[in-house]
């Protein structure tokens, strides 16, 4: 009996540990659910007011694409169905060419799709889910100013201007791409950090419904690829589309008047003008300045057994693979899996999390940069489209051997860095295969033209001799 009590005791002591989640954005709110479910005392500190009460929610993109990794992470805390039910499936990209023709390119096999979800609603739902745990407290209007790596004490600035000092057993930095928690990591020896702004900015425009219906086909992610820039559009539940224009800042600066906006759209996105509306376009284009996009890589993700970074705080990626949030959600899931394996011992879990997760998050950061070019430019290339069809075809006939990169990233939990490795291997094999096919076709055609088949008159021996002759480097001159 004494043994039982002591086991329970030590368990309950560990469960009472305080976990401070700094940042109540998408990843912070989901993480709060994970730690609360494990029984920790969870304190979430978010610099903004409670977005569930705010009239205007400031933030980044209005909607985003949720895929398999994110869904799996939501599922673990029982949130998948709630979120999926408010998402709009997108089965294919819909490519808008300059002359207005639209052609779909499926994302994967029949039945595979990504979901367009509303960022604000997702964040609100996750905050409410975290709050259903009695061991979770949400502290809004608490902006982290600083924290001490020696004592772990965090200093917050409250809305009333007062400062508050708080201690926790574990600090989980989910405070986004410009993380205040990460600042302390920068002072540590052997901490690697890089930050790259891409030359493009983004601007969002709304495409309203027409006669109460979506202005374009809703179950697609619409793309207008124009090589150096592009526009995309994702559907919303209120039957609007959010269009996002990605363009180099220099070019944004060249468009300064309403008439220039129309001229620009007339040249590159003529089919979108009547759908957004010329007047709205002229007005909304100037509502907000174009926003910058940054890619952040760092390592390690932890500091002793005290602090760990997740989500954009650990790895902000450019948005072109639609994986930033999905990767951040998967961070929570991977951390949770390691907590199971290592019995919630922070001194073992944190280094293991860094070991496992850094190569994967760095791989998705690189892939997102790669897709930055693919989405706006490669999709215009015939070779690229041909290769996509070949990859998809081979995937259908050899589903275990050939898996398109996009499928691995978006519809599986294959580790990102393994997906990249496999992609390089597959690419080599498929290109070599295509080369072999091309050479066979050329040689075969040559043979047919040069030696029209007259099968009854050619003996096997003769055919063999001719084939042998072809092996000679001078075969072209052999009469
Ligand atoms: C244009 C665009 C489109 C995107 N599209 C997609 C997509 O389709 N699919 C996808 O998976 N991802 C997408 N992303 C990426 C996605 O938005 C991010 O990966 C995701 O928001 C990361 O969540 P997070 O919680 O780590 O950070 P954030 O969402 O940035 O949340 C951080 C939170 O921390 C709070 N905070 C910041 N500083 C402090 C502080 N000092 N003290 C306390 N709180 C603080 C902030 O107020 C915020 O609430 C897109 C990004 C952009 C810019």
UniProtKB/TrEMBL annotation:
<dbReference type="GO" id="GO:0004502">
    <property type="term" value="F:kynurenine 3-monooxygenase activity"/>
</dbReference>
<dbReference type="InterPro" id="IPR002938">
    <property type="entry name" value="FAD-bd"/>
</dbReference>
<protein>
    <recommendedName>
        <fullName>Kynurenine 3-monooxygenase</fullName>
        <ecNumber>1.14.13.9</ecNumber>
    </recommendedName>
</protein>
<keyword id="KW-0472">Membrane</keyword>
<feature type="transmembrane region" description="Helical">
    <location>
        <begin position="18"/>
        <end position="36"/>
    </location>
</feature>
<dbReference type="GO" id="GO:0034354">
    <property type="term" value="P:'de novo' NAD+ biosynthetic process from L-tryptophan"/>
</dbReference>
<dbReference type="InterPro" id="IPR036188">
    <property type="entry name" value="FAD/NAD-bd_sf"/>
</dbReference>
<comment type="similarity">
    <text>Belongs to the aromatic-ring hydroxylase family. KMO subfamily.</text>
</comment>
<dbReference type="InterPro" id="IPR027545">
    <property type="entry name" value="Kynurenine_monooxygenase"/>
</dbReference>
<keyword id="KW-0274">FAD</keyword>
<dbReference type="GO" id="GO:0043420">
    <property type="term" value="P:anthranilate metabolic process"/>
</dbReference>
<keyword id="KW-0560">Oxidoreductase</keyword>
<keyword id="KW-0521">NADP</keyword>
<keyword id="KW-0812">Transmembrane</keyword>
<dbReference type="GO" id="GO:0005741">
    <property type="term" value="C:mitochondrial outer membrane"/>
</dbReference>
<dbReference type="GO" id="GO:0071949">
    <property type="term" value="F:FAD binding"/>
</dbReference>
<keyword id="KW-0503">Monooxygenase</keyword>
<dbReference type="GO" id="GO:0070189">
    <property type="term" value="P:kynurenine metabolic process"/>
</dbReference>
<keyword id="KW-0496">Mitochondrion</keyword>
<keyword id="KW-0662">Pyridine nucleotide biosynthesis</keyword>
<keyword id="KW-0285">Flavoprotein</keyword>
<comment type="function">
    <text>Catalyzes the hydroxylation of L-kynurenine (L-Kyn) to form 3-hydroxy-L-kynurenine (L-3OHKyn). Required for synthesis of quinolinic acid, a neurotoxic NMDA receptor antagonist and potential endogenous inhibitor of NMDA receptor signaling in axonal targeting, synaptogenesis and apoptosis during brain development. Quinolinic acid may also affect NMDA receptor signaling in pancreatic beta cells, osteoblasts, myocardial cells, and the gastrointestinal tract.</text>
</comment>
<dbReference type="Pfam" id="PF01494">
    <property type="entry name" value="FAD_binding_3"/>
</dbReference>
<comment type="pathway">
    <text>Cofactor biosynthesis; NAD(+) biosynthesis; quinolinate from L-kynurenine: step 1/3.</text>
</comment>
<dbReference type="GO" id="GO:0006569">
    <property type="term" value="P:L-tryptophan catabolic process"/>
</dbReference>
<keyword id="KW-1000">Mitochondrion outer membrane</keyword>
<feature type="domain" description="FAD-binding">
    <location>
        <begin position="19"/>
        <end position="333"/>
    </location>
</feature>
<keyword id="KW-1133">Transmembrane helix</keyword>
<dbReference type="GO" id="GO:0019805">
    <property type="term" value="P:quinolinate biosynthetic process"/>
</dbReference>
């Amino acid at each position: 009996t004494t043994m039982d009590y002591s086991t329970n005791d030590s368990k309950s002591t560990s469960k009472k540990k305080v976990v401070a989640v700094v940042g109540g954005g998408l990843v912070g709110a989901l993480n709060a659910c994970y730690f609360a479910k494990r029984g920790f005392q969870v304190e979430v500190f978010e610099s903004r007011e409670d977005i569930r009460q705010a009239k205007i929610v400031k933030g980044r993109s209005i909607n985003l694409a949720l895929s398999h990794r994110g869904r799996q992470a939501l599922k673990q805390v029982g949130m998948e169905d709630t979120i999926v039910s408010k998402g709009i499936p997108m089965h294919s990209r819909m490519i808008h060419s300059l002359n207005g023709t639209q052609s779909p390119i499926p994302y994967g096999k029949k039945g595979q799709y990504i979901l367009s979800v509303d960022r604000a609603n997702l964040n609100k739902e996750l905050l409410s889910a975290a709050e259903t745990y009695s061991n979770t407290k949400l502290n809004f209007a608490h902006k982290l100013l600083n924290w001490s790596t020696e004592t772990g004490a965090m200093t917050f600035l409250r809305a009333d201007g007062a400062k508050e000092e708080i201690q926790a057993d574990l600090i989980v930095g989910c405070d986004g791409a410009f993380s205040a928690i990460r600042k302390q990591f920068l002072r540590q020896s052997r901490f690697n950090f890089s930050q790259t702004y891409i030359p493009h900015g983004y601007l969002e425009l709304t495409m309203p419904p027409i006669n109460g219906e979506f202005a374009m086909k809703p179950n697609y992610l619409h793309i207008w690829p124009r090589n150096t820039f592009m526009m995309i559009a994702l559907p919303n539940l209120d039957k609007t589309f959010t269009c996002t224009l990605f363009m180099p800042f220099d070019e944004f600066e060249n468009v300064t008047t309403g008439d220039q906006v129309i001229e620009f759209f007339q040249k590159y996105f003529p089919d979108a003008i009547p759908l957004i509306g010329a007047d709205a376009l002229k007005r909304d284009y100037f509502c907000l300045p174009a926003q910058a996009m940054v890619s952040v890589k760092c390592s390690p993700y932890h500091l002793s057994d005290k602090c760990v970074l997740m989500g954009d705080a650990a790895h902000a990626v450019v948005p072109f693979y639609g994986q930033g949030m999905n990767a951040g959600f998967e961070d929570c899931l991977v951390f949770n899996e390691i907590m199971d394996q290592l019995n919630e011992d922070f001194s073992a879990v944190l280094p293991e999390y860094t070991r496992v997760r850094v190569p994967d998050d760095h791989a998705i950061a690189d892939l997102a940069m790669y897709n930055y070019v693919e989405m706006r430019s490669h999709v215009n290339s015939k070779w690229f489209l041909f290769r996509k069809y070949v990859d998809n075809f081979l995937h259908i006939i050899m589903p275990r051997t050939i898996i398109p990169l996009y499928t691995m990233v978006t519809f599986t939990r294959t580790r990102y860095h393994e997906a990249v490795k496999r992609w390089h291997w597959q690419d080599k094999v498929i290109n070599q295969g295509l080369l072999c096919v091309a050479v066979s076709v050329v040689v075969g055609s040559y043979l047919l033209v040069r030696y029209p088949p007259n099968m009854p008159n050619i003996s096997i021996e003769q055919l063999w001799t001719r084939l042998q002759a072809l092996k000679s480097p001078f075969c072209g001159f052999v009469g």
